[in-house]
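Following up on my earlier thread - several people asked me to post the actual chain instead of describing it. Fair enough. Here it is, all 362 residues.
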Amino acid sequence: MGLADHAWALRLLEDAMIFETVATGGCRSYLIGCPESCAAALIDPELSQVDRYTALAARDGLRIRYLIDTHTHADHFSATQQLARQFGVPVVMHTASPAPYVDLRLRGGELLIVGRLRLQALYTPGHTRDSMCLCVEDRVLTGDTLLIGGTGRTDLPSGDAAQLYDSLFDGVLRLDPALKVFPAHEYQGRTHSTIGQELADNPRLQQRDRAAFIDMLHSLNLKMPTHVTEALRTNMSGGKTVAQMLSEAAATVPFMSLAELEACIDSGNGELILLDVRERDAFEVGHIPGARLLPRGQLELRVNQELTDPTRRILAYCEFGRISTLATATLRQMGFLGAVALDGGMKAWREAGYPVKSGTEP
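Reply from S.P.:
Thanks for posting it. Predicted structure:
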């Protein structure tokens, strides 16, 4: 497996600062710490790396004081909410952020104090309306405003090519040319650049005319990020991802194996109610013999007439095992404490060669 398939960390220990870069595919997040006070800030954390951030902070003896998103991310899920609950520290974004869960909202020029370190916000709208960069010591964390060899895109919600031009040419690019550039994304394994290197070599920055720069960004025709709708929904609203909902549901329900289900069916004692929570067309194509149909979308409305004995053991299944996990969690919340989910779902049952019945009858 390649670099893009693994999270990796680059650790730089200097006299005045501990600096960790954590990469997950093309995403970059940064742990910045003061070795004297052990205070730290975590910038642009990604949800799948929560345990890694915790381990890195513990290894370096750091206590995270701030969780910062440089902007509303559209290509991955922010971990700031979960880590804020875990550590009891504030979520920080620019004041233009729409996210209701932000505890501390910065304006351009304002500082966060992390021990002896000073993180200064630079408001840089363009990629998103709430984009900001963070200057600390000899480097600038540029979010998606300035990338190594590129710039942020402006075709996502609240993006604005004219604002990005102004943020770059009237803001970031006027910083000290020696400042190191650490962006929120990097797809070629490079660790960092400098303001001077980007001015000299970044092909998008060679277009200095404002109108031509705007036209260039409008003509990029870039592919939409995976899960863009879900990422924007959760990062803007503080809602849960589908993966989080499934994980939380799976932690509250027991599962039954395919072999155990076959044994229960073969016993013929009728103690187990088989509940197919797919839609009718899928049920008619093929279902587990003896199963009754109760689509997930109708579960709460029909459960009282379909399941009259709350003490019965109930097995719910769907095609892949995800919808039935949610359905089983709902059943248990409603008092059906004997509800379990089928491990692997109908697909696994079919592929294992167990019997399948078609039609409308159980």
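Residues 249 and 326 are 6 Å apart (CA to CA). That should answer part of your original question.
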